[in-house]
Amino acid sequence: MAQALVVEANGSVRDTVLPGGAAARAGVVRDLVGGYADQGRYHRDVVLHVRGDGAAEPNLVAWALASVWRGVELDYFLYGTVVVTAPDATEALPTAVAGQVRAASEAVAAIAAEWRSRRPASDRAALSELLAGVRHEVLSGT
Prior knowledge:
By secondary structure, the protein is α+β, with helices and mostly antiparallel strands. The chain has helices at residues 22-33, 60-70, 95-114, 123-140, and strands spanning 2-7, 13-18, 37-43, 46-51, 82-85. The protein has four helices and five strands, in the order E-E-H-E-E-H-E-H-H.
């Protein structure tokens, strides 16, 4: 059994425990993402499991986090629920990485709350603001 994080498209993050067997683990990940799960590597200590046939809603937390980890703004979104695991899914997610995922979620929530009273100038400006906020939180280690 290994600890993992589930990042919902609405930006919330929750803990989950994956079973020990590979088939059972793949089944749980498939259930969490809502279909066949593709794997993406954006950080050496992390695998992002994303629904392979897409989902309707972009996951801005996962997109911003993957962009920060990769060091470049991704020109595509990650969609739907994303499951974050260690590369060896039988191991626990490193504590520092789990903290970065939670910090990214909090940063996106804080920026979205600001937008209720101050709309971004454009969609591009909104994405830039999200990315800057997540980058600050992740790289500052807060």
